[in-house]
């Protein structure tokens, strides 16, 4: 029984909710119907005012998005391995015609552009599959086959896209793979096209920027549960696709939930410029880390005079800090990278195509250079002006309220805040340099939300008086203020249905006015939950198994460390060995995990000794397990009956201490409250 208890703590879904970017399959259950509310007159006026500042009817982007269309994508519906629907193209049929009252007209324009789906010829021998996933898959004709760039997020979408390409281009023999960067929508579908054995047997180069695998898994292993929950808001997971629900992310139609994977690169781009020939195709690579992704490359194809900007370039203002949560990106480095690309292309008069990992290409040398300079200037303006205003004493909220792009930039659609916004990007730049504290002593150690809310409600004369005052401001269309004060009331009295309903209505109107897809989805997700909707997402951990098998063991140890419950571990001093065996049954990795002072430490003994079987002689117990079984445990495919008596697992030493060790690990919560206390 103690043996079973010890491994219960291993079999609690350790990583089933840990990978935001593996985007594993999910079921979403709603307890209520989403409330379709009309746009207020204030929202109508706000959207009309914005539309009048933009050339909404400009067709240049639409012409470029349709250029080279070989075949429209089918109206397909995809299900994952469990039969859950993960993609329904028909659910976006409503995105046509003029903007409805409940959608920002600028966002609506972007949504229509992102609805142009199919196989496109960028140039003869250079093709893109767009609208099958959040990102694009690019196909480059080589001497003996095809080089695949960014094989999408999931096995399901990658396979469908490739099958569609083969219907129109003929059989596609893959002779090379390029991962432009370390975000899953650019590599997760690889195992639908090739597996590691095929790559090895055919000597297929898999090219990626330096640090690719580490960056692909690191932050999401550590902070995945919180990112997942926040990401469910950012991408509107509980929302229907409709004019009063999810419309577009700005970057693409939606995040796809399915089975994701990864393979180890065989060729690393680690130089600022690096030329390779892949199956007869000359490619000039540029290593550009530390901007849109910590590990990222771009490349130039001389044969087509075409430059791939990866996701450093796109037809949106991107995120300096994604709202799901991540490390802040360096806006200045980002701007510098774009400037480098602009200088490179400006020096090549023949360069006349820019294609990227999202959206549609740009044609024409001068048009490309202009676009790049504008994107470069947008990120540098955000950086420089944020720091300038901080240096004269403005706080993040004040800076965000004051900053506007110069007119020479603001009217360009590829700089609009469809995904990132100038508001939250300026706050990110502030955070990059100064952290969370704005310098005002009142913000140094404020009360927690509930304690603060109770006092606010008391100061405002009680719940009834607060609601009456909020209704006055709601009637004036002052939705931001209504949201601020009613958030206090909801946190003080979460059962107050009147407060929740009024706050939800304020969020809806703010959503309808939002130009950014993520802002719209965040507000609508908040409204949905306030009025009884469930945002509990149940993830199919097995869908991430292919991904987990490639994760370095050190990352698993880091994830175990952040699950230690410090309060429960008070006063405990424990140590265990975990020895990992290879398919032949030999130990090839050995870790010692120790707990002291409510902190878990780990050491990779394999790296500190020449003996792969080395272990701590003072450990309380030793667990020997194959990595394959360890991953099966993590994703829930191996139950307790599989563990007992398995020749892939053994325990030496004190089972009691092993039980105690794993009992100190807490379980992440992927459904914590956000708009409720």
Structure characterization notes:
The protein has 677 residues and is α+β, with helices and mostly antiparallel strands. It is 38% helix and 16% strand. The chain has an 8-stranded mixed β-sheet, covered by helices on one side. The chain has a 6-stranded mixed β-sheet with strand order 12-13-14-15-16-17, with helices on one face. It has a 5-stranded mixed β-sheet with strand order 21-20-19-22-23. Helix 1 (2-11) packs parallel to helix 23, helix 13 (449-459) crosses helix 15 and helix 14 (463-475) packs antiparallel against helix 15 (479-492). The two termini are 38 Å apart.
Describe, in short, the structure shown.
The chain is an alpha+beta fold and 677 residues long. Helices cover 38% and strands 16% of the residues.
Topology diagram in text:
Blueprint: H1 2-11, E1 26-28, H2 41-51, H3 60-66, E2 69-72, E3 77-79, E4 85-88, H4 105-114, E5 118-123, E6 126-130, E7 137-141, E8 146-149, H5 155-169, E9 174-178, H6 196-201, E10 206-209, H7 212-234, E11 267-269, E12 273-278, E13 281-287, E14 297-301, E15 306-308, H8 331-346, E16 353-355, E17 362-363, H9 365-390, H10 396-402, H11 407-410, H12 422-434, H13 449-459, H14 463-475, H15 479-492, H16 497-513, H17 517-530, E18 537-539, H18 545-548, H19 553-561, E19 574-581, E20 587-596, E21 599-604, H20 605-608, E22 621-626, H21 627-634, H22 640-643, E23 649-653, H23 655-663
Parallel strand pairs: 8-9, 9-10, 10-11, 15-16, 19-22
Antiparallel strand pairs: 1-18, 2-5, 3-4, 5-6, 6-7, 7-8, 12-13, 13-14, 14-15, 16-17, 19-20, 20-21, 22-23
Helix pairs in contact: 1-23, 2-16, 7-19, 8-9, 9-12, 10-12, 13-15, 14-15, 14-16, 15-16, 16-17
């Amino acid at each position: 029984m103690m043996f079973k208890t010890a491994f219960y703590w291993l079999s609690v879904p350790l990583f089933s909710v840990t990978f935001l970017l593996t985007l594993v399959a999910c079921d979403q259950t709603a307890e209520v119907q989403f409330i379709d509310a009309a746009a207020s007159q204030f929202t109508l006026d706000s959207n009309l005012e914005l539309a009048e500042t933009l050339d909404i009817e400009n067709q240049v982007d639409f012409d470029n998005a349709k250029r080279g269309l070989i075949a429209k994508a089918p109206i397909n519906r995809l299900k994952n391995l469990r039969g859950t629907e993960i993609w329904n193209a028909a659910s976006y049929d409503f995105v046509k015609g003029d903007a409805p009252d409940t959608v920002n007209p600028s966002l609506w324009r972007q949504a229509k552009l992102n609805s142009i789906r199919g196989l496109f010829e960028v140039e003869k021998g250079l093709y893109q599959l767009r609208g099958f996933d959040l990102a694009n898959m690019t196909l480059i004709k080589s001497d003996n086959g095809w080089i695949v760039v960014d094989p999408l997020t999931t096995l399901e979408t990658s396979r469908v896209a490739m099958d569609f390409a083969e219907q129109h281009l003929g059989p596609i023999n893959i002779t090379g793979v390029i991962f432009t960067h370390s975000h899953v929508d650019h590599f997760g579908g690889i195992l639908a096209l090739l597996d590691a054995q095929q790559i090895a047997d055919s000597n297929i180069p898999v090219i990626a920027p330096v640090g690719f695998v580490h960056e692909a898994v690191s932050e999401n292993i550590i902070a995945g549960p919180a990112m997942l929950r926040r990401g469910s808001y950012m991408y509107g997971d509980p929302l229907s696709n409709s004019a009063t629900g999810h419309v577009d992310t700005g970057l693409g139609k939606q995040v796809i939930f399915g089975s994701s994977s990864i393979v180890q690169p065989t060729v690393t781009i680690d130089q600022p410029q690096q030329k390779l020939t892949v199956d007869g195709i000359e490619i000039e690579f540029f290593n550009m880390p530390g901007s849109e992704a910590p590990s990222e490359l771009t490349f130039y194809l001389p044969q087509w005079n075409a430059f791939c900007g990866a996701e450093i370039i796109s037809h949106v203002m991107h995120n300096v800090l994604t709202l799901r949560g991540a490390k802040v990106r360096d806006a200045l480095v980002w701007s510098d990278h774009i400037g480098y690309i602009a200088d490179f292309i400006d020096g090549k008069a023949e360069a006349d195509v820019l294609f990227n990992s999202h959206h549609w290409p740009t044609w024409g040398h001068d048009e490309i250079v202009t676009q790049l300079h504008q994107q470069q200037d947008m990120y540098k303006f955000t950086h420089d002006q944020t720091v300038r205003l901080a240096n004269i004493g403005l706080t993040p909220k004040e800076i965000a309220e004051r900053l506007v792009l110069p007119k020479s930039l603001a009217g360009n659609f590829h700089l609009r805040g469809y995904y990132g916004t100038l508001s939250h990007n300026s706050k990110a730049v502030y955070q990059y340099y100064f952290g969370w504290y704005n310098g005002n002593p009142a913000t140094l150690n404020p009360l927690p939300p509930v304690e603060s809310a109770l006092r606010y409600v008391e100061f405002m004369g009680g719940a009834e008086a607060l609601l009456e005052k909020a209704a006055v401001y709601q009637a004036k269309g002052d939705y931001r203020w209504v949201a601020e004060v009613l958030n206090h009331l909801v946190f003080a009295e979460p059962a107050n249905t009147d407060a929740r309903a009024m706050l939800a209505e304020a969020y809806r109107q703010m959503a309808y006015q939002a130009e950014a897809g993520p802002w719209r989805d965040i507000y609508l997700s908040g409204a949905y939950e306030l009025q009884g909707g469930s945002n509990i997402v149940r993830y199919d951990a097995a869908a991430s198994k292919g991904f987990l098998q490639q994760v370095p063991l050190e990352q698993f140890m880091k994830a175990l460390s952040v699950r230690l419950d410090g309060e429960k571990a008070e006063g405990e001093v424990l140590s265990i060995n975990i020895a990992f065996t290879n398919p032949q049954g030999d130990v090839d990795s050995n870790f010692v995990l120790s707990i002291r002072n409510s902190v878990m430490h780990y050491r990779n003994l394999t790296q500190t000794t020449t003996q792969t079987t080395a272990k701590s002689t003072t450990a309380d117990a030793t667990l020997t397990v194959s990595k394959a079984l360890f991953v099966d445990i993590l994703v829930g495919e191996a139950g307790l009956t599989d563990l007992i008596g398995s020749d892939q697992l053994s325990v030496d030493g004190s089972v009691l201490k092993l039980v105690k060790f794993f009992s100190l690990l807490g379980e992440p919560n992927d459904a914590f409250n956000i708009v409720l206390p």
